[in-house]
Amino acid sequence: METELQQILQFWMNHAVDQQKGGFLGALNHQNIPDLAAPKGIVLNARILWTFSAVYQWKPDTQYIMLAERAFDYLMEYGLDKKFGGVFWKLLPDGNVLDDRKQIYAHAFVIYGLSEFYEATKNKKALDAAISLFYLIEEKSYDVKYGGYFEAFTRNWSAIEDARLSEKDRNEKKTMNTHLHIIEAYANLYKVWPNRILKFKIIHLLQLFKQYFIDAKSFHLNLFFTENWQLKRDVISYGHDIEAAWLLLDCAIIIGDIEWMHTLEQMAVSIVNAAAEGLDVDGGLWYEKRIADDFLIREKHWWPQAEAMIGFLNAWQITQQNHFFEKSFNSWQFVKEHIIDKNYGEWVWGVDANYRVMNSQDKIGFWKCPYHNARACMEIIQRLSMPTIFDSF
Q1: Exposed site from 121, 142, 186, 236, fewest CB < 10 Å?
Q2: Burial 30-61 (b: 16+ CB within 10 A, else e)
Q3: Taking the CB of residue 336, how many other CB atoms lie within 10 A of it?
Q4: Are 241 and 221 in contact (CB under 8 A)?
Q5: pLDDT per position as a tens digit, 37-57
Q6: 11-38 pLDDT per residue, tens
Q7: CA–CA separation, 183 vs 204, rounded Å?
Q8: How would you class 292 by CB atoms within 10 Å of its CB: exposed for 0-12, middle for 13-18, buried for 19 or more?
Q9: Does the reported pTM lie above 0.70?
Q10: Helix intervals (H) in the chain
């Protein structure tokens, strides 16, 4: 894991920096050819900020903090909306605004990155910005009537007709994906700013996951809801299942809530077992399955494999059942065999059912980032080299 982590980081240091227009490239194709005209996503910048801030604390190399500082400076200069507050969604290569929508998903990742950068550097501007975004989300996005958070707004925080993260998503008021990354961001902020209101909001989010997002029968994640929590069934996302299984428990551990830790320990194992329905015999995790016609989308994308490595290992730590450890290890074996790009570096977007690489997808892009795979490496290093919280239960 240490070797792979270093190789991932080296790839991003070598290829991601935009030397011409500042910040980081908006896109780099499968053959490592940059697209200098590609738009720059704030989410990608925030994920780079988190990754290199986190890894600097694992190994304090000046190269790592320099990249984190580059991401922080770019975000503060171009990503923040200084007129209406919050962050933009998408920028032109020169830093001018291309899409000024207020997607709460992006705000969550910026909080995630800023709080990690503060932990690494103690730069108070980063903490102040993260706290300010927390209060802004609570003011603008929190639903005081039904609970939870609305998905998106216009630049001036008015209602927006199309709230989708991407074209593949349903256009609904509330989504599991955004809520998952809000709680992830809030928990990361809590580590450096243990505020009473923030803790209350994290617990509220845990309650929402238990009540709405985690299906009480199947333990798959319900993904899309109306404003008043009417479920709109769509797909089973095996990657989000396995990611939520370990991440929600981690949030409970961070706030030190013993009751929620025990609850989410049990739920983590059930969710992992549900996600394991998406495992192929080769150890890879299929992408999604449509619920309406039970149709399996026979692709294995990079990020569900990374989350599977953590999720199954987490279940092994809870239960000490060896088959979970084997599933985690087999996920890593699948990654080594089919996902790590032995020619051009980093991880490919994914492979189809016949192991053909999805090489039309970018190596660096709006959604392709170092966050999932670098985090998987760091999580596994930490979990296998240190006593865990579970040892004290």
Answers
A1: 142
A2: bebebeeebbbbbbbbbbbbbbbbbbbeeeee
A3: 11
A4: yes
A5: 999 999 999 999 999 999 999
A6: 999 999 999 999 999 999 999 999 999 9
A7: 9
A8: exposed
A9: yes
A10: 2-15, 42-58, 62-74, 104-121, 124-140, 176-192, 196-208, 238-255, 258-275, 302-319, 322-334, 371-385
